[in-house]
């Protein structure tokens, strides 16, 4: 067994651990991954376009955007980085992160070039990468409850408010 085979086996995530912990459905997980890939492509193209200037802040923002694209591809689509030996290990480690951690990382990563150089290129180039972070953030909130349980909670709160109101009125009399 070669060192590369051992690395692939070590980097393979446990099937039950990653899907059961975060509570994301399969289609939402794929939506987040596709948004990450598209966000990576938009960051790469906008970052390259942003580097065609003489303003050093625009060049720095463009380089950061291309770095964002690389990280998004590495975490969300490691098959795009087959020439990098550690791509599967990084992807496996990124899959173990909680959704709110990915959300904070992706949103912060996308906001930095915009703060560095506020141009339309940086705004539009990082918009989809930021949206990927927002999608992960929404998944961290959890599933929406059903209408019956919300109606029960609302009814209980309404009864408690009425009891407090009648108790306060009886105390005044």
UniProtKB/TrEMBL annotation:
Keyword Disulfide bond: no
Protein name stated in the entry: FLOWR protein
Primary site of residence: membrane
Stated family: Belongs to the calcium channel flower family.
Gene assigned in the entry: Cacfd1
TM region positions: 30-49, 61-84, 105-136
Any single GO BP term: vesicle-mediated transport
Top-level taxon of the source organism: Eukaryota
Membrane topology: Multi-pass membrane protein
Renumbered residue ranges of the record's region Disordered: 1-20
Xref: Pfam families: Cg6151-P
Keywords: Membrane, Transmembrane, Transmembrane helix
